[in-house]
Amino acid sequence: xxxxxxxxxxxxxxxxxxxxxxxxxxxxxxxxxxxxxxxxxxxxxxxxxxxxxxxxxxxxxxxxxxxxxxxxxxxxxxxxxxxxxxxxxxxxxxxxxxxxxxxxxxxxxxxxxxxxxxxxxxxxxxxxxxxxxxxxxxxxxxxxxxxxxxxxxxxxxxxxxxxxxxxxxxxxxxxxxxxxxxxxxxxxxxxxxxxxxxxxxxxxxxxxxxxxxxxxxxxxxxxxxxxxxxxxxxxxxxxxxxxxxxxxxxxxxxxxxxxxxxxxxxxxxxxxxxxxxxxxxxxxxxxxxxxxxxxxxxxxxxxxxxxxxxxxxxxxxxxxxxxxxxxxxxxxxxxxxxxxxxxxxxxxxxxxxxxxxxxxxxxxxxxxxxxxxxxxxxx
Length: 379
What we know:
Layout: E1 4-11, E2 17-21, H1 49-56, E3 60-65, H2 99-106, E4 112-117, H3 123-129, E5 132-135, E6 155-160, H4 163-173, E7 190-194, H5 200-213, E8 216-220, H6 225-244, H7 255-264, H8 269-292, E9 295-299, H9 325-330, E10 334-340, E11 346-352, H10 358-371
Parallel strand pairs: 2-3, 2-4, 7-8, 7-9
Antiparallel strand pairs: 1-3, 4-6, 5-6, 5-10, 9-11, 10-11
Helix pairs in contact: 2-3, 5-10, 6-7, 6-8
């Protein structure tokens, strides 16, 4: 199946099962990042740190998952190694770039999966496929053995069908992660609802979920969101070109990704400097909002996922990430909880907390998921 590119049996037999996005090294196997340009890559000589931690903590690795080529796209459509089918919503894109990881979890072929999130690449496919996906605080989880080797935005994180499993993965891959009790966690909790532009059915689903959770809601403005989205793209372009630009000359990179890489190559130093200034300003803006309300809430997706038939021009759909990418720029932890619109289509509730408050954010998300009937993985 397109979601799994390598079947494996590593680790503790009978342990919980996990699949690994094919941008993370597993010793003895090549890391191909969903690209024919890396088809002849040599086998990794060591496990990525997070892979070794999973094995050391009793997890069983059962496969490597497919992705949007070179992790450089939002839809999950891959013209080279095949597009992952969204298990619950097969007419719709699975989301990218961690499409295979989200789909494998949604299809229940593993208990959990690891993805990477540079500009929404865990949270977007989690929302599209109807599962939970977590982007930790930048730097909280080791990226040793992860492609690209250098990134100021990318985070390794888990996807799962329930918060208990997601939290268990975090405990395994992050040595200082100490789960927080959910007891009375929502009592008196104030959540800031970020004003964003999104489709009415998406906003209705998010509002309904928050109201059912019983928390205290306050309106919040983040006027720097749009600038942060653009700045995040500028930095992603420069860093992805630095990491993968040399592959374009092979002629083996899919045309859509190759064209994006060539466009990325034109990013100037002045544009990068301006983006870094936005990073500082937006991070401070989010910090200020979190000082007033310790959790921020907003949709994961601005609208329901596009249908596969309408998504062949992946460059035209980068806006899928306009509500998630800003928090890669700022470095704050963010999680997507699965939601359904009134028409039964997948979207997501995104929650954001202060940098380093990963445990608390996961506990709040778990408490909301337990309390709120609208937050469901059932289609």
